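The data are quoted verbatim for reference:
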Amino acid sequence: MTSKTLAESLIDLGVATSHSRPKTSNDNPHLKASFKTLKHCPAFPAVFGSVEDTRVFCQGFYA
């Protein structure tokens, strides 16, 4: 009996692999860097008035 490697099994199942840091499956360094940049923006408010205010701010920031 032989078995497939994990990578081969994932390809067969149509699962895309990510390039996260080793042994940190729930971490996305690019996303974390984006949030840090967002939070350190001079226009970032201390408190948002509502979820809609947050969406409007983020849409403008990421545009």
Observations:
- Residues 51-62 form the longest helix (12 residues).
- The radius of gyration is 19 Å.
- Residues 20 and 29 are 7 Å apart (CA to CA).
- The mean pLDDT is 85.
